[in-house]
Every structure is written in structure tokens, then in C-alpha cells.
Amino acid sequence: MTDLVIRALDERDAPLFDTLPDPLGQRGAHRLTRHRPDWKRVALRAGRVVARGAWWGGPDDRSPLTVDWFDVADGEEEAGAELLRTAPWRVGLELTLPTGWRDDPVRRAAAEARFAAARAAGYALLVERYRYRWTRACGLPERPGRLRFAPEPDDGVFLDALRRIHAGTLDAHARAAIAGGGSERAAREELDFLHWFPSPRAWWQVARTPDGDLAGIHVPAHNPDSPCVAFVGVLPEHRGHGYGFDLLAECTHHLAAHGAESVAAATDQGNAPMVSHFARAGYPVLGERVHFAAA
After folding, report:
1. Which residue from 28, 101, 186, 205 could staple onto 97, CB 3.0 to 4.6 Å apart?
2. Could you tell me the superkingdom of the organism this chain comes from (predicted)?
3. CATH classification at residue 158
4. pTM of the predicted model, to two decimals?
């Protein structure tokens, strides 16, 4: 077998990235995503691309936040692993997959080849998530009217809410952050990430019961690619009432009122309450995403 050559791309040779077959439909899944050419890397054998990766971040980020697109050719798992191992950035890996990929032998084999390459590069499975995309054709979800929503300019209120929401959370990323650095650090990292979005800080809202008790928060946002549900969370003492739906409905209405024609969202497949709320709110499942954590 010929030697492997791994190289970064630039504007001039960016088309090399598109020469690998696409059995998992990555091109369609990332049609709204802007990837920087210099954050794309390929592995070549005898001049042919056998693995590729695209790292992603915001337009002002100095380094990427995640590996957003990762592919390997048949039998080239080790090439894919070497592509990840030698990258200058050690960040999480997200594999975008079509719905029902496990039921299709070709897609399942392609996905498992990428999983094997990621594991060989030292990545560990973190969580599988559903991807959603609401459009105006879905119709706006009904507002239950049980909570009172208002902007809250004080970051301290959101930080305290995040600390409390993280207690008993079903979100795998939050649990991993707590395990890695404690609840205070996890809450501050979450707050920093919410500030990363380029949409107005004034969009963030708190939700209170009619007697004024804080029940939850939601953050409508616009990431570098599209409007999205950045965060929905219910405080522990108010769980069990379905308030997650109220927050999601309000978040959707807010984004639609600010011109969104579509809204992206995601939740862990094991988060049964939020999966139910997305279904009730009319968010169709667009696909799946498997998250791997970097060692």
C-alpha cells in the first residue's frame, strides 16, 4: 500500500475535498454550513482522497469548535484516524447521519467505519442526538399561556438558573462538563457559549409562573449558519409539568417574529421529555448526529 499524505487545503485546491464518495449524504446535510477552506484536511493515497475532515467554528473564532464533517473511503479507517490524530486542533467530533441509518446496510457500514476511525484516533462516544428543522410550513406551535416570559439583562440570573438546571440534567454534554470541571465551571462555560452566538443578547428570556417564581429560561439565537434554539431549560423544582414545551413554543415564536423562515434544533435521543416536546411543537426530525468527545 502506498504511503499516506495528509495535507490541509486552501482556496486553490478546496475542490479536492469533494472527490470522495458521499454515502451518508453529508453534502445535503451541510448545505447551509460554511466551512473555511483552511480548516479542511484530506488524506491522500497515490493522489486519491481516502479520508477528509472539515472543522467548524464561527467567523471570528481563531480555532474551530468541532470536527463537523468526517469521511473515510472503504477500508481506510486507519487513514481517517491518522487524519484526526495529526490535526492541529483537538476538539469534539460530530458525525451527521440520515434518519434510520442503522436500517440500511450500506449506510450502517459507512457510519461504523467512521466510528472505528474516530475511536482509533482516541475519540470516545458521548451521545447520539436528533436534529430538527422547523419551517413555517410546519405551523407555529400553540402557546399554552401558563408562563410569563420577559427579557432579563442580568447574566447573574442566567448563571444561577444554569447551575440549577444542570442538577439532574439529561443533557450528556452538560453532564460531561460537570464531571470534568464541576457544576460552577460547567454553568460558566454554558453561559460563555450562549454569548458566542452573534444574535442579540436581548433575545434571552426568563419564564416565570403567575406567582413570579422562576420556572425556566430559553435562548433563541442565530448561529453563523441559521436561526436556532440555543437553549431550553426548566428548573428542577418545576419539572414534571411539561414546561419544556412552553419554553420551546415561545422560543419558536420569538425567532419567527424576527424573520426566521426555519429554525434548527437538537436534543439527546435519551432525553425523552424534550423529544416529546419537539414532536408536539411540530419540529420534524431532520436526521441524527453522533457526538464523540476528544480524549
Report:
1. 101
2. Bacteria
3. 3.40.630.30
4. 0.94
